[in-house]
## 1
Amino acid sequence: MTTKTHRIALLFNANKTFDREVISGIAAYLGRRRSTWELFLEEDFRTRLDGIEHWQGDGVIADMDDPAVVAALSRCTVPVVGVGGSYASLDHYPPGVPYVATDNFNLVKVAHDHLIDVGLHRFAMFSLPKSEQHRWAQEREDAFSSLMQHDNMEAEIFRGHETSALSWDEAVRSQIAWLHSLPKPIGIIAVTDARARLLLQACTIAGIEVPEQVALVGIDNDPLVRMLTRIPLSSVIQGTQEMGRAAAHLLDQMLHGVRPDNTPVLVPPAGIKVCASSLHPLVKHPHVMRACHYIRQYACQGIKTHQVAEYVGVSRSSLEAYFRRELGCSVHDVILRYKLDAAKAGLQSERSIGDVALACGFTSTQYLHLVFKRELGCTPRAYRDQVFGALPDDVRDADHQTA
């Protein structure tokens, strides 16, 4: 029996991690089903709405957080499935459209619960300026306010500015002023990883220690943001792959004559990736706090104990004594720990082990090998294979050349 091929338009902006991951979930659904779809996306993967109401295909899946997309698709005659943020009021969802939503309340709750778990008692949120395109950010603000109200605490929310070449300096100044106004230590939830990255930059410029004074959690688990931050960013992982699969399933049903219930499908977070930015330490001595902040940023650049002491402004012997008293280890031990953590993260990529060693401040592959055997009881290659599985042959060949 011949299976009919359906022509489906995907209206997403693949510049956004959220949209890319939803598209990936749609692809995963199609890879496991007999459904045959020809997918239409703009060549540069950006959403363009001109003439979409005249689309001659069989169906549409779209990111409908933007009211302009909702308005344009309201004139469509083919089946439409919406994807986007969740809303407390059903009136805020597109009328008459099956909809798959990321659970905004629980995204914020996961971040909030994590900050409580690391021992923090004060919290704030870094959001976005209000606009129709940022309605999902307002929902995250409302979720944060609800959590604060439940604990009888004031909801400290800062929206800041939209950033552009002309407004960047002003935006950073306002972020720094806000950060200085907050009681410390404090946990801050950013509505996206992109906003979290801006706040990390502001902390660095202002000399505010992360996570000793400010512990920060983003939302999106965006790999590009992780590469652009000196301090690895903790981030809540949205269930975007599941959202894509659920949206494709709904449209598949509609294409076969089944009309789904219009009750929004809420998809919970997939978890949280915990990194250095939110691991608030129970460190009280200001010299140790300042030293750890410096180490976290520059450990992979090959810094030595005497350089850390110079940055803090104390003698090497005094700093060593503070570390022994506060952390029960040496300054060198902490530097090595951060380098080792960076190397473990680097082995998740397809870079060769030699490249990972150099990028993480190890003088040679052999030294990285020695540290792994001593600290973890295995080689870097064995660690990579055990935890992440075998990599492509070309990467394995590169590993052999540098081992």
Note: The longest helix spans residues 135-150.
## 2
Amino acid sequence: MPFRDTEVARQLQVFGFAHLRRAAQDAVVGLEHGFERLIRLPSDGRPEERVTEFDILTGLPALGSVARSAWVRGICEAYFGRRHRVITSDANALVGDSYWHSDGFYNTPFLRFVLYLDDTTRDTGALRFLPGSHRADNGWTGDPTRHVIRHREDLGLAGGDVPAVVVESRPGDVIVFDTNVMHAAWHGDVRRQLAFNCVGEPETEAEQLDTRRYFLNRYVSGSVLIG
């Protein structure tokens, strides 16, 4: 791989996200076929709203292989400082915008690995991030986060005009981010997305509680609709 685990972990610590170009290039064909089995798109290719399937690693061996790869393990262990586990996985046919949000500000860090099966650009729904917004020591909790979420009322900006880093990607790329980081996607039509979420093996009661909450929130809270 053209990246080092420790360098990626450092990017995640400082900025909250990293772009791993071609990291899953060898898996693209299997991912394409697996997605077609999991999610049947309408004949015109455009569902009316987001379609999601959960717990897909068993039914999509190509993604399971990515999740078990040595480089995923290396990044997670470098970031968490311990062994890790995959706690959720999902396949999504995303439609339209994804508004500014984090997946919940947890004291326990979680990583989300995202693979798109379509090219994404700033004009077609690429992920975008506010660097460092996952870190409470940067002052992001509270009013700053609310101002971004209320960008039109508080900042006078459309969501796509909030200054951010846009991560354009191609099939085979992997985008990994700390789920506390503020992120969004704007101007997108339909894009096929596969993802899995990881956490360090919980060592305290608080970490166990956060992990249970995070797992449940992926299924039952509104965050999964825009994550």
Note: The domain at 5-225 is CATH 2.60.120.620 (Jelly Rolls).
